Amino acid sequence: MKNVGQKKTRHKTAVILGAGISGLLAAEVLSKRFDQVIVVERNKLSLNRPTFRSGIPQAKQFHVLLNSGLNLLEKLFPGINLELDRLGVPLVDYTKDCILFSPLGKVPRFPSNLLIRPTERPVLDFLILQRVLKNSKVKILDSLHCRKLNFKSNKIESVEGKKGDELIVIKGDFFLDTMGRNSFLEKRFKSEGIIESKNIQTIDPYLGYSTQKFLKPKGYNPDWSAIEIASRPPENPRASGLWDIGNGQWMVALIGVSKCYPPRRQEDFLNYAKKLESSLIYEELKKATPIGPLNHFRGAKNRWIHYEKVKRLPSNLLSIGDSVCTFNPTYGQGMSLVIKEINLLNSRVSKLSKIEDKELSNLSKYMRKKIPKLIAPAWFLASCEDFNWPMTAGKRSNLSLKISHYFMDKLAPIAPYSKELVETFLSVANLVKSPMALAHPIIIKQFITFKLLGAPKNNETF
Length: 462
Ligand SMILES: Cc1cc2nc3c(=O)[nH]c(=O)nc-3n(C[C@H](O)[C@H](O)[C@H](O)COP(=O)(O)OP(=O)(O)OC[C@H]3O[C@@H](n4cnc5c(N)ncnc54)[C@H](O)[C@@H]3O)c2cc1C
Prior knowledge:
Layout: E1 2-4, E2 13-17, H1 21-30, E3 36-40, E4 63-65, H2 67-76, H3 80-86, E5 92-93, E6 98-102, E7 105-106, E8 115-119, H4 121-133, E9 138-141, E10 145-152, E11 155-163, E12 166-171, E13 174-177, H5 184-191, E14 200-203, E15 208-215, E16 226-229, E17 238-246, E18 249-256, H6 269-274, H7 280-286, E19 289-298, E20 302-305, E21 317-319, E22 325-326, H8 334-351, H9 357-386, H10 399-411, H11 419-429, H12 441-453
Parallel strand pairs: 1-12, 2-3, 2-13, 3-9, 6-16, 13-21
Antiparallel strand pairs: 4-8, 5-8, 6-7, 10-11, 11-12, 14-20, 15-18, 15-19, 16-17, 17-18, 20-22
The structure holds flavin-adenine dinucleotide.
């Protein structure tokens, strides 16, 4: 047995379980106040180049880093945008460079500040890992599957895991669960009655994803970087996004809800694309050549563990990222929400005067209380979308959510005539503005005018 993380009396160690985006960013932030940060990861990490690993299966699917996440990531790691540029990852103006089809048709294009990055997920993870590896206070223990927590009164004292045949025990003062959607802590706390079923909210739209890369036609430089086609409830549950990911490649995700799963076989890809609400992606793909395998993913639902309501949690434990909440990924909010949570942790940690037991317990309590406020807007949007489908399983949990969903449904028809609504909606979707911004006086005025007078006489969109 090997012991890690044992310390001199005043030496403080943070132990992070999981080296996904949450774990690595948290390591960077906690290293500002802790003497040592140990990150435990079950997979072997590739230190030289971006590679896919089994611990993050969704990484084979198309990922976009939204505006809010991108800006905060740059704040945390200045210059990371330049590195993304160097690797050829496009920077896209969401409203100008993308052809967007809402359920009501094509959305007019206009310039905005909603800059986003379509990325191959391993590339982003690799850049973040490179930054963290430069941090001398952070030690990463990979190929170490963590399976057990050891307690002393209401605190975690150590975690245990196996590396090959060797049992490794890691002691620490503060523990972070960043093990993602399948964190073993949830199972353990459930079996002990600490997490009760009333603490977990689930909305399942029965969603599937299939992602395929294509070589775009040689010399083809259209005036767009992406095409997004939304589903149209309740008739057409198919949606898609085609994104230029740089280096002459497109990454295309086919998405289906209500069990209208996209194909697992490459030869069926175009057929599914043909049934989208617009034929544009299908037409473009006919000119392109598929490269690499088709990757399929099922089971991405909205799931929120309300840790803020769970009693008897260890005082020195905090859960962050997908281990707390996952979303229907159609809006691409997961990583940006993680980065927002880390940003909050950063500002709180930098204010800590001491890192003794009491301060660490207060830090966990503070974060558990505040994280739901960050999650709520993303949850609102994802659930709004999902409840448009009769097959979706789950409950609209409270009255304010029901009213908000009703309001969103009523607002939708004015979108083709209101640039303000489209810009605000997309800012909400990018987690830049709160959903309350949709109740802006200009939008309300446009809504009332539309209700009283109908669409503009010439039916002209903005
Ligand atoms: C189909 C799909 C598409 C998505 N698209 C987008 C998108 O476009 N934009 C976006 O922002 N988000 C997207 N997401 C969400 C995004 O992938 C997640 O929000 C994000 O990866 C969460 O990061 P995390 O670090 O919390 O968890 P994870 O990325 O799941 O990382 C968890 C880590 O913990 C490790 N681990 C787990 N258990 C143990 C253990 N016992 N011991 C040691 N290590 C362990 C794992 O190996 C892994 O490295 C998508 C998700 C899906 C499913």
